[in-house]
Specification:
The chain is an alpha/beta fold and 421 residues long. The protein is built from twelve helices and 21 strands. Helices cover 29% and strands 25% of the residues. It binds ligand LLP.
């Protein structure tokens, strides 16, 4: 469900017209709906109610402090993949005891910060990383709870750039090595292996790949127990897809039923790491049409937003809905347009031959489903300032990240002494 809808022909976020926010903060900007975040969280939490489980929101999807705090206040834990995200989770008020640190390469400095904070678990993905963590933890005189991330060699059936569970992907430990690995972890000082972790990809729209991966991992839990190991936790990662266009992803309740069935009888504490499913449809990117250009072969809508603001179409050929902020009359006829940004790259294209009621320069357009992997993946390529983020709640809105000034941006660079004069 989203709360981005037309009222009196004006696209609103909850009760606030997007045009009003545009007039106040300028374009482009990201806009999130607090109520949509809460609804998504409640649906996820309700599906797992009564289950021995911690739901750790994957900050990589959207790590704005206000977004994370909104979810933390509702009871979310956090899945982080860097010291920066760990600091964001703590600053947003996520208790350390509900934070999981994932990722294929944690530096020693990051391990130290995580151990000093006393987080719930670190997911380890290679032998050298395991040894480094043992070293850091023993040096600090603490014991790190670790889960071994395994690679189940399952095809997630999603875009190849966001598939992580095939044996040729860099993620996780081969299943065949897992038992020896677990034994090694148990033998090293400063480590307490508590379970396994698995994550096969993102934007999955079918349950089968999850079911395969979770069953295989469940069998590994049993094999480890037969070896005499203690396995008390199973981290099932994230990956549940959302509707961008006409996908039919599983309902959260179906996903939860599948999880229950695949892990039945294992007696493990579950960790879930949803990202996109909680925030993806809670945000839009609002942009203004700079120009409409008619070429011989194509017509282009040139927006003031670009690939540096939302890279998903350029990187994954991702499809995002694009709608006018002022609803066109019901009898208007859509025509095909390429929707592009001003960056000097052909890849700076949000949509190709998209049917749109012909927009005019100055019109506002909203790019939908931009709450996940939007602002967090932005860059300042072409020295375009990072764009502001706005959070709406009912009739009010607040800027939750400001647009940096050019002085702030240029101030990050320094001239060496020999270039100063
Ligand atoms: N846990 C782990 C270990 C992950 O690697 C990820 C995402 C998640 C949880 C959260 O997955 P989600 O529930 O959001 O699917 N930038 C890409 C998506 C990359 C996902 C990377 N890992 C995109 O824009 O589609």
């Amino acid at each position: 469900m989203t709360l981005f809808a037309y009222r009196n022909r004006a696209l609103h976020a909850e009760a606030v017209p997007l045009a009003e926010i545009a007039a106040s903060v300028g374009t482009p900007f990201y806009c999130y709906s607090r109520t949509t975040l809460e609804t998504a969280w409640r649906a996820f939490a309700a599906a797992f109610a009564g289950q021995d489980a911690t739901i750790c929101y994957a900050l990589k999807a959207n790590s704005n402090l206000a977004v994370v705090r909104t979810l933390a206040r509702l009871g979310a834990g956090a899945d982080v993949v860097s010291e920066g995200e760990l600091r964001r989770a703590l600053a947003a008020g996520v208790p350390a005891g509900r934070i999981v640190f994932s990722g294929v390469g944690k530096s020693r400095g990051e391990m130290k910060t995580a151990l000093e904070a006393g987080i719930f678990q670190l997911n380890v993905e290679s032998l050298p990383e395991l040894e480094a963590l043992s070293d850091v933890a023993s040096g600090l005189g603490v014991v790190a709870n670790i889960a071994l991330r395994v690679n189940p060699d399952v095809d997630a059936g999603t875009h190849h750039k966001i598939s992580t569970g095939k044996k040729e992907n860099k993620f996780g430990i081969d299943f065949d090595h897992a038992r020896a690995f677990y034994a090694r972890a148990a033998a090293l000082p400063g480590l307490k292996p508590v379970g396994l972790a698995v994550h096969i990809g993102s934007q999955l729209t079918g349950l089968e790949p999850f079911r395969d991966a979770f069953r295989k991992t469940g069998q590994l839990v049993e094999a480890l127990r037969a070896d005499g190991r203690t396995v008390s936790r199973l981290d099932l990662g994230g990956g549940l897809g959302i509707v961008y266009r006409d996908e039919i992803p599983p309902e959260i309740a179906e996903y939860a039923d599948m999880v229950r069935e695949a892990t039945r009888g294992l007696g493990v504490h579950l960790v879930l790491e949803p990202g996109r499913a909680l925030v993806g449809n809670a945000g839009v990117l609002v942009s203004r049409v700079l120009y409409v250009k008619s070429g011989l072969h194509r017509r282009f809508v040139i927006l003031d937003a670009a690939m540096n603001d939302l890279i998903r179409p350029a990187l994954y050929e991702a499809w995002h809905g694009i709608v006018p902020v002022t609803e066109p009359p019901a009898d208007s006829q859509p025509e095909p347009f390429d929707v592009v940004g001003p960056v000097c790259e052909t890849g700076d294209t949000f949509a190709t031959q998209r049917p749109l009621v012909p927009p005019r320069a100055g019109d506002l357009m909203a790019i939908r489903s931009a709450g996940a992997y939007g602002a967090v993946m932005a860059s300042s390529y072409n020295t375009r300032p990072l764009i502001p983020e706005v959070l709406v709640e009912g009739q009010r809105f607040a800027v939750i990240r400001h647009r940096p000034s050019y002085e702030e941006m240029l101030g990050l660079d320094h001239l060496p002494s020999w270039l100063e004069e």
